[in-house]
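Quick illustration, no need to memorize.
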Amino acid sequence: MADVKSRRAVEWQRENPVLRLGEPGYDRTSGRLKIGNGRSRWNELTYVTGSSSSSSFSEVDAELPTGAVRVYATEDQAVADANPEYVWLILDPSGVEETPPPSDGEETPPPTDGEETPPPDTPSGVPTLISSVTTITPTGWQPTRAVTLPTGIQAGDVLVMVLHGNLEPVYGITPPAGWTDRAQGTDNTQDIRMFTATATGTEGTTVSLGVENAPEQTGTIVYQLRNVAETPAAIAKNSGFVVSLDVPTLTGVDTDAIVLTGFGESSDYDGVDPVIGPGAGWTIDGNLVHARQEIFAHRTGIGTGSFASTNGGKFRAVAAAFQ
């Protein structure tokens, strides 16, 4: 059996691969098929149209080499059984599709002159955390604060900024141009925020936060994610004057989703009673100690955790899942 690439529509659009000459790609969202020509990317190809026995392959025919075998596609095995004169690709919209194995001695032809070699696929479209970088912005009454971005950003990557500081309504903060505020919150939870953006691939080394009347330092992290949608699949916040604060609870999250959490403590933090967490299963990406303390961490899939110290303080946390 031969595996056929199968993705959701949003995954095909995000990856935008070059399919090899005659290589099929199945869109599970629409239940339709595209056939590669070895040059065009997915978003440039048109879907194969037509019924089972009279499919319109005119565009594909023009690209096929002499002696190539035309393959038809259907999700209905009965259609294939009723038309045995054709070679059929049986599509399974829930996963991997199957097609009959090649006959003995049949080989895949090598690329012809001028035929583009497709770039390597990202790992089956699996959500991936590429890198992250932290910044502690300086004190003072600046109208903007520079936040460092990861290096090696590619077009289509999703950037997630998590930040904590004195951001209560009397002060206010605005995200960088082109970024979306995902977790403004109210009252105490407004002090922990999350902004997102889809990368163009032309980003510089920093972006600027707009800050109104806030002299305090702000602890931030920027994550670089790949194979995820910019809009979080789930997001939640919590806060309190406590000694232990749970990571906010998320629901409806895929097992391979990337879950990010950010924590902050203020109340004139002096580093004497440090907060620890979020615990087993989490990877800590930043533990910033200054006039406040911030902890940033990630994991794959939903998991529990908490942030705690001996004496407690003014705790805030946010969690979000990207898939």
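The chain has three helices and 18 strands.
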